[in-house]
Amino acid sequence: MGIKVKIISFFSLIILIVQCAWSTNTNSNFVVTSIAENVYSIISPSIGLPTPENKGWNSNIHFVVTKSGVLLFDTGSSELIGNKIKKAIKSITNQPVRWVVNSHSHADHWLGNAAFADAEIIASSQALETMKKYGQDDVAFYSKVTKGTIGTTHLIYPNLLLNYPQKRTFGGVEVEFIFANNGHSHGDILMWLPEQKIIFGGDVLSSDWMPMITSDGNVLGLINTLNTIIKLNPTIVLTGHGNVTTLKSVIRDANLLSSVWKQVKLDYNNGLKPNETLLNLRVKLVSKYEPLYKDFETEIDRIVKLMYQFQQKNH
C-alpha cells in the first residue's frame, strides 16, 4: 500500500455496539501524519465495526521517534495491522520500535502487539488482567466478523506493568503516564509529553464522536480525568478514534458529561425514568452539543440509560 506523509497545524461488545452507529470508510491506506517534531499519527479512516473491507482496522496509532528508538502508542487489532504499522513507521525512520504502550485492554488497541514482540510492552496491571481473560475470544470475534481477513494473530501480552502514575524518559523524551480512574475501561492509561504539551488519550479522549462510556467504565473517574487533562492545557490531543484535536474537545466532553451526570442523578433521586430525563436533556443540550458531535442524536440516548444503570448500582 502507498504511504504518504502530510503535515497538519472501542474492546468489548459495548464498544462494538457504539461503533456500529458510526459511518464507515473502508480506505485502508496507512497514512503517516506528522503531528509535531518527531511525533506522528496513523489515523484509521474506518470508524465502525471491524469488517472484511477494513480488515479490522478501526483505531488510531501514534508514535514518537526518539534518539534511541520508537515509542509506539497502541498497535491496532491484529498482527497483520501491527506489521503494516511497522512498515509505515519505517517510511519515517530506521529506528526500531523499542517501546510499546497499550492504552487499554480493548482488542482494537493491542492485538497488534505480536508485530512488536521484541519491544518492551507497557500497560496497566488491570488492563493485562482483562487481556488475558478475553484475548482469545477477541481474536476469534475479529476473525469471524472480518471473515478471516485479519489473518493469524498471536497473543503477545504486556511485559512491563504500571500500577500507578509515573514519569519515565524514552530516548531522551520525557513522558508521564496518567491513570484515567477506569474512566473508559479498567486500567486505562494516557501518555503526556510535557515538553511538547501533547496528550495521547486512547479511548478516554474524543474528537469527532461522543465520549466513549462503557458499562465497565467509571463516569466520575472519566470526568475527573478530563478535568485533570484540562489543567495540563495540551496544545495537541491525540485520540483512539477520529481526527487529531485540541483542548477544546476535552473541555466540551467534560462539560457535557458533567451536565448529563448531574441531571441523571437528580432525576433518578426524584423517581423519574430515563426517557423523561432524555426529553429534558434534549431540550437543554441539543442546540449546544449536536453540532459538535457526529453521533450526538444516537449516543445521548445510550449514555443516559447507561448512567441510570450506574445510579441503580450505587443505590
TrEMBL record:
Entry keywords, A to Z: Signal
InterPro entries for this protein: Metallo-B-lactamas, NDM-1-like, RibonucZ/Hydroxyglut_hydro
Similarity comment text for this entry: Belongs to the metallo-beta-lactamase superfamily. Class-B beta-lactamase family.
Domain Metallo-beta-lactamase: 58-241
Domain of life: Bacteria
Coiled-coil regions listed in the entry: none
Keyword Signal in record: yes
Signal peptide span: 1-23
Originating organism: Lutibacter aestuarii
Species lineage: Bacteria, Pseudomonadati, Bacteroidota, Flavobacteriia, Flavobacteriales
Protein's UniProt name: MBL fold metallo-hydrolase
